[in-house]
């Protein structure tokens, strides 16, 4: 197994980011399944869908650690992870599976915004409808995996060197190198309709909440706006991850960027989302944030409890805030 100093740094980065992605999303799933109030039931379906998808993405990234070199509408992948020992076909299938999880996570965030808009319009949204939306949306990225089972790939050193214009040093020393024709288009192009639907729904939600005489009280309206803000922040993460990766990919196609060192950056940027997204969700969804705050506060409580009586209102302030938030059971 050949690796240079840049490969070693990239593998270290992938190990850290993937491990954090698995841990953060696993913890978020624990909060979703065990700490979610009944009022969040339809919404937790979309949260769980996003979290499971990003957890699996992190695992695939750790297995493949792909270095992506794209020149002249060709993509040459060098696999530095464990999948290289599984052979060419498995390495490529795990790589495409990783990309399809990335697409599904973006779709899931869009579905969360669509759900919020529909629930405000119809005043109800069944949990079965949330499951149906997730399953139907998943057919889009799943078709990516199914359609490439028999795609033409090559691991021939001469062909791959021609594809990279002989710019890549030591290409013959890597264990698993594959060239493909199409991969990046699905990930990049699908974001256009996803973002269009997402921001249209956001616009409709905010317009409905600003309508005079709308039926929700101030507390519920603030909670809805907070969740919409969380979805907006999550949707902005790809602006700093996916879009730069796509820009680098296109720049290499038109020879604006010539160096092959950018092959480390494309997937590195894309893989930041599964690490950041669960932190955004935990921060903006109040029951989850409250659980963490209470957990940390309960560890400090023995230090301050001798100075406060059990009837002191400060003991119950956090609980009162959470009860106030949960009174409207379908829209928080």
From TrEMBL:
Any matching Pfam family: 7TM_GPCR_Srd
Protein family: Belongs to the nematode receptor-like protein srd family.
SUPFAM superfamilies tied to this protein: Family A G protein-coupled receptor-like
The protein, known as: G-protein coupled receptors family 1 profile domain-containing protein
PROSITE patterns per record: G_PROTEIN_RECEP_F1_2 (PS50262)
Subcellular location: Membrane
Top-rank lineage group of the source organism: Eukaryota
Native organism: Caenorhabditis briggsae
Membrane topology, from the record: Multi-pass membrane protein
Primary subcellular site in the record, as a coarse category: membrane
Gene3D superfamilies, per database record: Rhodopsin 7-helix transmembrane proteins
Membrane spanning stretches: 12-34, 46-69, 89-115, 127-148, 181-201, 231-250, 262-285
Keyword field: Membrane, Transmembrane, Transmembrane helix
One GO CC term on file: membrane
Record domain G-protein coupled receptors family 1 profile: where: 24-281
PANTHER family per the UniProt record, alphabetical: SERPENTINE RECEPTOR CLASS DELTA-32, SERPENTINE RECEPTOR, CLASS D DELTA
């Amino acid at each position: 197994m050949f690796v240079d100093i840049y490969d070693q740094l990239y593998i270290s980065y992938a190990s850290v980011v993937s491990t954090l992605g698995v841990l953060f999303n696993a913890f978020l799933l624990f909060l979703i399944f065990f700490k979610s109030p009944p009022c969040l039931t339809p919404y937790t379906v979309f949260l769980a869908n996003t979290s499971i998808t990003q957890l699996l993405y992190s695992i695939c990234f750790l297995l493949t650690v792909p270095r992506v070199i794209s020149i002249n509408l060709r993509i040459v992948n060098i696999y530095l992870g464990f999948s290289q020992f599984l052979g060419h076909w498995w390495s490529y299938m795990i790589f495409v599976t990783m990309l399809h999880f990335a697409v599904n996570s973006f779709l899931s965030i869009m579905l969360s915004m669509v759900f919020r808009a529909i629930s405000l319009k119809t005043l109800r949204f069944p949990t079965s409808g949330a499951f149906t939306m997730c399953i139907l949306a998943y057919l889009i990225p799943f078709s990516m995996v199914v359609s490439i089972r028999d795609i033409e790939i090559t691991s021939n050193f001469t062909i791959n060197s021609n594809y990279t214009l002989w710019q890549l040093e030591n290409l013959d020393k890597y264990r698993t190198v594959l060239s493909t024709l199409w991969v990046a288009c699905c990930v990049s192009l699908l974001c256009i309709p996803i973002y269009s639907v997402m921001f249209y729904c956001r616009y409709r939600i905010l317009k409905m909440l600003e309508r005079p005489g709308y039926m929700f009280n101030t507390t519920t309206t603030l909670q809805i706006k907070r969740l919409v803000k969380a979805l907006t922040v999550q949707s902005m993460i790809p602006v700093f991850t996916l879009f730069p990766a796509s820009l680098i990919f296109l720049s290499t196609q038109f020879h604006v960027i010539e160096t092959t060192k950018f092959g480390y950056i494309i997937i590195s940027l894309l893989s930041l989302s599964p690490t950041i997204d669960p932190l955004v969700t935990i921060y903006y969804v109040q029951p989850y944030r409250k659980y963490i705050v209470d957990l940390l506060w309960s560890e400090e409580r023995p230090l301050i409890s001798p100075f406060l009586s059990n009837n002191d209102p400060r003991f119950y302030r956090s609980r009162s805030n959470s009860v106030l938030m949960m009174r409207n059971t379908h829209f928080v």
